[in-house]
Design brief:
By secondary structure, this protein is an alpha/beta fold. The chain folds into 3 domains: 8-72 and 170-334, TIM Barrel, CATH 3.20.20; 84-160, PK beta-barrel domain-like (M1 Pyruvate Kinase, Domain 3, Beta Barrel), CATH 2.40.33; 353-469, Pyruvate Kinase, Chain: A, domain 1, CATH 3.40.1380. The chain is 37% helix and 23% strand. The chain has helices at residues 20-29, 43-60, 112-117, 173-185, 198-208, 221-225, 227-233, 241-247, 253-267, 289-300, 310-313, 318-333, 338-344, 353-367, 381-388, 402-407, 425-438, and strands at 8-13, 33-37, 65-69, 84-87, 92-96, 106-108, 123-126, 131-138, 142-149, 151-154, 159-160, 189-192, 213-218, 236-240, 271-274, 305-308, 373-376, 395-399, 414-418, 447-453, 462-469. The protein has an 8-stranded parallel beta barrel, surrounded by 7 helices. Strands 6-5-9-8-7-11 form a 6-stranded mixed sheet, covered by helices on one side. Helix 1 runs parallel beside helix 12 and helix 5 (198-208) runs parallel beside helix 7 (227-233). The protein starts with 7 loop residues before the first strand and ends with a strand. 45% of the residues are buried.
């Protein structure tokens, strides 16, 4: 089950794909991590999906990652007396605390904390930016706005606030319940929606207590303003281009994607590019040329993973979407320009022993044309550090902990294997050679490089490099 590409593929499960046969087919087509969207999954539904994934894992003998994506605070209008209204350009429209059904002049906004935070000049976007309002006067119970982009507003439409810092947690009561249920069910990654500040991530970390790693979804201007702090406290990042493109000018999104991708790589943290990657394949068996270029750009940028949402969850061609993404990634990684682009994005190593070892491992492996880098890792940190270097030889991560192997399913270039820990230095090298040969990474008389920490089983103790011959 060795993949022929380094970038990983995440696919969302949903009505079109959440059955055992489809999960197996999606895995064979190229999926490394499955996403469960908690906006649409009940706790029982989530547990059923996890059981299917774990059954597939057992069937193929390969660790598979599971990402539970929390819904986050969804802001919505209340209802209208006639169900919908059309707002004219230049008209005055009021958002208030009055629960009476709305009309063409006003509507209830059932979020008192938002009304209290709005200020004159703030922009309010409705229905993914189809209608744009600007606040002209605000009190704690009412915001008077002028319509800048006209259009239809209707019951329960979503509200986005690019200029307003919302004084609430990124986790709602539903999210807390979903988080506990997901952790108990044994997921590997938690995706946190609508992060605004590092405190949002810290709040989830207190609940998770190491049972899952935390991926911060960057989709709000407030998160961009505090990006370095959020990245520092997160375990991984997602460039959530859907909401990011609503709350910020669309033309800024490509540059932000590159900035987030490179900063995450500098920190040695996985980064995922998501939203509308093969959007047309929801209804078409082939993507547009622009979508192919979009996926290719993310691979050229060195992203750890690319993600499918509705394409695999609710589309007509989920298998074809994964297969297409797999072929694009393989072709890009075989392109003559790929290695030079990846190498030119390399950041300087941090002044730590683990980073120095990872950088030296890459240099030795590429200089001597070694066939594989084999990293013994308990926590997964060694695997991630070597992945950060984007080496030319493939990376084998050997770990005695199945949860570590599942988490590493997200990391660029890492092929994780669950095996008992090394007994001593000789066993470390011998089994690294055996497993590299068994998995097809190296053949007899070829050399590999082995990275480990002594004493064995001690997290963060990466301190040894050894070159070994496959017997």
């Amino acid at each position: 089950m060795r993949r022929l590409r380094r970038v990983k593929i995440i696919a969302t499960l949903g009505p079109a794909s959440a059955n055992p046969e489809m999960v197996s087919k999606l895995f064979l087509a190229g999926v490394d991590v499955f996403r469960i969207n908690m906006s649409h999954a009940s706790h029982d539904g989530m547990r059923a999906q996890i059981a299917m994934i774990r059954a597939t894992e057992k069937q193929f003998g390969r660790p598979i990652g599971i990402l539970a994506d929390l819904q986050g605070p969804k802001l919505r209008l209340d209802t209208f007396k006639d169900g919908a209204e059309h707002l004219e350009k230049g008209a005055t429209f009021v958002l208030d605390s009055n629960t009476t059904p709305g009309d063409r002049t006003r509507v209830h906004l059932p979020h008192p904390e938002i009304l209290a935070s709005l200020q004159e000049g703030h922009v309010i976007l409705i229905d993914d930016g189809k209608v744009k309002l600007r606040v002209t006067h605000a009190t704690k119970t009412k915001a008077t706005t002028i319509v800048e982009v006209p259009g239809k507003v209707s019951n329960r439409k979503g509200v986005s606030l690019p200029d307003t810092t919302i004084p609430v947690s990124a986790m709602t009561e539903k999210d807390r319940s979903d988080l506990e249920a997901a952790l108990e069910a044994g997921i590997d990654w938690i995706a946190l929606s609508f992060v605004q500040r590092p405190e949002d991530v810290a709040e989830v970390r207190k609940v998770a207590r190491g049972r899952a790693l935390i991926m911060s979804k960057i989709e709000k201007p407030q998160a961009i303003a505090r990006l370095d702090e959020i990245m520092e406290i997160s375990d991984a990042l997602m460039v959530a281009r859907g909401d990011l493109g609503v709350e910020m000018p669309l033309e800024k999104v490509p540059g932000l994607q590159k900035r987030i991708t490179r900063n995450a790589r500098r920190l040695g943290k996985p980064v995922v590019v998501a939203t509308q990657m093969l959007e047309s394949m929801i209804t078409s068996p082939v993507p547009t040329r622009a979508e192919v270029s979009d996926v290719a750009t993310a691979v050229f940028d060195g992203a750890d993973a690319v993600m499918l949402s509705a394409e695999s969850a609710a589309g007509d061609f989920p298998i074809e979407a994964v297969s297409t993404m797999n072929r694009i990634a393989e072709e890009v990684e075989n392109d003559p320009l790929y290695r030079s682009i990846i190498a030119n994005q390399r950041a300087s190593a941090e002044a730590t022993g683990a980073d120095a070892i990872a950088m030296a491992t890459r240099d030795v492996a590429e200089t001597l044309d070694l066939k594989a880098i084999v990293a013994w890792t308990a926590s997964g940190a060694t695997g991630l550090r070597i992945s950060r270097e984007r080496p030319e030889p493939p990376i084998l991560a050997l770990t005695p902990i199945v949860n570590t192997a599942r988490r590493l399913a997200l990391a660029w270039g890492v092929h994780a294997i669950v095996t008992e820990d090394a007994r001593d230095v000789d066993d470390m090298a011998a089994r690294a050679c055996q497993l590299a040969a068994a998995e097809g990474f190296a053949h007899t008389s070829q050399r590999i490089i082995v990275v480990a920490g002594v004493p064995f089983g001690t997290p963060g103790a990466t301190n040894m490099i050894r070159i070994a011959f496959v017997q």
